[in-house]
# Entry
Amino acid sequence: MRLEEDHSYRETPNRLKYMAEIRDVLGLDRNDLPEYTTIYKSFDRLKMWVWRVLLRGNAQQRPQSGHAALDSTFFDRRSASSYYRQRSGSDVQILKVTTLTDRDSLAVLDVHISARWKHDTKTGPQVVRRNADDLQSVAADKAFHNWVTKYEFYALGIEPLILQRGSRPLTLGHNALIRAKGYSQRWMAETSYSTTKRSHGDAVRALGWYRQFREIVLMFAISNIEPLCEPL
# Structure
């Protein structure tokens, strides 16, 4: 609610006083609302795996195809934390986010966020591995390609729709086959990025990097929920 309505942490409890339906869902009494610091510190109390469960839980409210797109995008952290970065001696200005997106529903199933950019062949398998039981195929561009990744996907029972680099006839034939099997649906991941960033921006506001990670997960979680809230 805070992100959707663009409220500050201080404003949120005051707004809740006049939102009876939301209070009823949350089980909150009008005279017993949490302090804004309680809401703010919840980002610290909940571990990252809890935020991932939240993201996956609301993604499962939408139809799941078992076919996912793997891709990476970036979020700006400069505007929110210039003072923090100077004080802490950090020079990281951009966060790299690798996501796993259902190709039919556009729901983001899982994310990996890094301040120190790892290669896609390192982060991609990590995200897929956590969700292997629910996947049949994963489409990804050439940045995610190496033989170790492909073998791991096959071992998990997942078909890797990953393009190869090169211009040899064998490589061109392989890429043509991959496109015919559904690789073209990989753009669904970019559509989910566009939707999220249009609604919530492409920059994070929190000061600490760990809160920024949770903020990004929450952005994607809200984007998963929003289509379910649209009037029929």
